[in-house]
Amino acid sequence: MTTSEAGDAPRPVTAPATVDTGALTTAIVAAGASFFAQPGDWTFLSVVLGAAFLLILLAYHRPREEARTLQGAFVRAAFAGTVALSLCIIAGLPLQLAAENAGMTNEAHAAADAVTEWVSWAWLPVTAVVFWLEPRIGRALASARPERDDSA
Asked: What's this model's pTM, rounded to 2 decimal places?
């Protein structure tokens, strides 16, 4: 017997979907950390996956109403850290290509190793900037799309 047969009213189509943001953040951090843990070159696939992580984060991010609480600060920090991780992953390949063009190819993977170190160090300042911008990001994500005028 399904839940609808048991007499439960179906959920309205307009009801917001609930997402466990903690599980979402943990999954993205775990997947993102794998890029830093594996030696080797940055690839186009890492750029695509970093962009996908970023899109998922932005799609499910909901600004906290109680932003001035300690939990609200932790939610902002988790969002900022995972967005920064996604941005660093996206920047990996372009930075590697720039390092190779600048002549950092003394060894087989010297440019890739240097970029991994760069993005590892860049993560914290990028996190701080995203943390600071999170209220603006939240407002932009929650704002309604402007109506299109199709009369022309």
From this structure: 0.73
